Amino acid sequence: MHSTLKLTVSHAPFWHNGSSISTKSRNILLASLVAVIPGCYQYGMAAVGVVTLSIASAILWELLINFISRRPISVGDGNAALIGMMFAMMLPATMPWWAVITGTFFAVVIGKEIFGGIGANPFNPAVLAMTILMLSWADLFDFNAALLNYQFDFKAVYPLVLSKTFGASAVDPFALMDLLFGKQIGGIGSTFGIGLIAGGVYLILRGFVRWEISFSFLVGIFVSALCFNILNPEAYAGPGFHLLTGYTLIGAFFLATEDSSSPVNFIPMLIYGLLGGALTVLIRNIGTHIDGVLYAILIINLVNPIVDKIRPKALGKGV
Amino acid sequence: MSSKNELKFVYALAIVCLVVGVFCYSSVPAKSPEPPVRLMFKTVGGNVLFDHQTHSDAYGKKCIDCHHAHDDSRSDVPGSCGSCHQSDSESIPVFGDNGTFDHGMHSMDMGLSCNDCHHDYDEEDGGEPQLCSDCHEPGVEDDFMPGRTQAFHKQCIACHEDSGVVPGKDDCASCHSPRKRTEAFHDQCIGCHEDFGVRPGRTDADCKKCHGF
Q1: Considering only residues 17 to 76 of chain B, which have any Cβ-Cβ distance to chain A shorter than 8 Å?
Q2: ipTM, interface predicted TM-score of the complex
Q3: Shortest CB distance from A148 goes to which of B11, B16, B39?
Q4: Confidence of residue B91 (pLDDT cuts 50, 70, 90)
Q5: Whole-number pLDDT of residue B97
Q6: Cβ contact (<8 Å) for B53 and A22?
Q7: Does B12 contact A at CB distance below 8 Å?
Q8: For a surface tag, which of A116, B15, B25, B77 has the fewest beta carbons within 10 Å of its beta carbon?
Q9: Whole-model pTM?
Q10: Contact pairs from chain A to chain B, CB under 8 Å
Q11: How many Cβ atoms are within 10 Å of A88's Cβ, its own excluded?
């Protein structure tokens, strides 16, 4: 229906406020380094190899698609590099080179470019690529098997496998402070909780990430994990454990908040985040998969266009 | 930063990352360390993560303490886990509390090592045992190795005798009618799994979760 609302704007020329996609990409890359560097320190050269190859191949895939589709070169906005970084943060340090390159192909080409490029992707490209790889080569993502040759000063078992297999009492040796400071095995940039929180808070304060999504995602996990824990404390670990293990924190601050696959209105953002958190715990506790964050994010990406239609605030109302 | 400079920056980033990535991948050794840090035993009942380093360093075990079943053809086969980790028949989760698979007997009395059963099955390696019937072959039995029927009879009847519910020899149908047998096995396994909240649902379509045995 034709809108009768009249908006008054000043005449050109307009003043650009300086924000750009490349600035945003650089800041998110910078924030992610706070979690990635400790991961590289923990896993050594192998992790550096995965991260750098992932970033390089993501950029090259986008460049290749730009050439093939005869569209303007878009890698300058840094989004491809960011996708490469997000993808690498979730991988084990022992991921073979061919899987990294295949994964970035799925992320950049299938997850983004095929839909029309940045802003048109319905799913988070890195999450989509991860789930395709996890379904195709599940053995590569068995962190217990992948990191057999590393020596740690903590219990070298993927915590979510323990809780899923042996119940809540099996994760008693994992102190929450240890989990927060990355004393757990997992993805290269997914385990150093305090770094992910610091990076996330920085992005929220700079306005690059909406706090509503991150906060509601974590609340969704906390509340649903608490309900399970109260119902059966022997079988289901507590909310603190779920908040600090697996892909929870990277999901809350870096993945669920991706621009084009998340809502923009206040209430929809809260619903989107809460739904993601609750689905994560449901999949972890009663689903067949070890971690539910990635599947939960794909599902909320899918419902994003619908929830964003819930009572949108009219532009200019009350001004 | 202008768009031209942004593009140059990303090109430089891609080249540097590519060079570093290739260097890192080529410099990381592909071989596993000797002795191993941890090992993963793959089984139909779930993978078993074995911390080799903890056993050798923290527990002060010497190589020979475990790797003592040495002969030329099986030099890499360690001794039984059960020789240290005592296990009775009731602790085998897949058979439930009432299951009578005697893990202790198989691992200690029979001297089988973990790898004899808990390994990644490969038909081409000579078909080492992983299923019950890999050892207890149907219709084949001798003084040492009971056949599958006899092994299963012992497994079931031992428990039934404890409860005083022993079917007569002629009344096969009291156990072996399809419905009775299914119910008995399901109750035996699922009852216990349900107590611990770790089970496939009764309507779970993934039968192989349990029936791989």
Answers
A1: 17-18, 20-25, 27-28, 32-33, 36-40, 46-47, 49, 51, 53
A2: 0.89
A3: B39
A4: very low
A5: 43
A6: no
A7: no
A8: A116
A9: 0.75
A10: 102
A11: 32
Which regions of A23-112 does DSSP assign to beta strands (E)? Answer: none
Task: Tell me the chain A residues in contact with residue B51 when contact means C-beta distances shorter than 8 Å.
Answer: 156
Q: Do B6 and A46 touch (CB under 8 A)?
A: no
The residue-averaged pLDDT of A79-97 equals 96
Position A315 scores a pLDDT of 65
Mean pLDDT (whole number) for A66-72: 93
State both tokens at B116. 């004899």
Backbone angles phi, psi at B177, to 5 degrees: -65, 145
Closest CB to A55: pick one of B9, B11, B17.
B17
Across residues A178-191, what is the average pLDDT?
Answer: 95
- In this prediction, residues B124-138 reach a mean pLDDT of 64
Q: Cβ contacts (< 8 Å) between A77 and chain B: which residues?
A: 6
Residue B124: what pLDDT?
Answer: 57
Angle, in degrees to the nearest 10, between helices A21-43 and A193-206 = 170
CB A246 within 8 A of CB A89: no
Taking the C-alpha atoms of residue A107 and residue A114, their distance in angstroms, rounded to an integer, is 10
Q: Are residues A149 and B36, on separate chains, in Cβ contact within 8 Å? A: yes
Distance between CA atoms of B135 and A234, rounded to whole angstroms? Answer: 37
Cβ-nearest to B13 among A55, A77, A144: A55
Query: What residues contact residue A44 under an 8 Å CB cut-off, 6+ apart?
Result: A93, B28
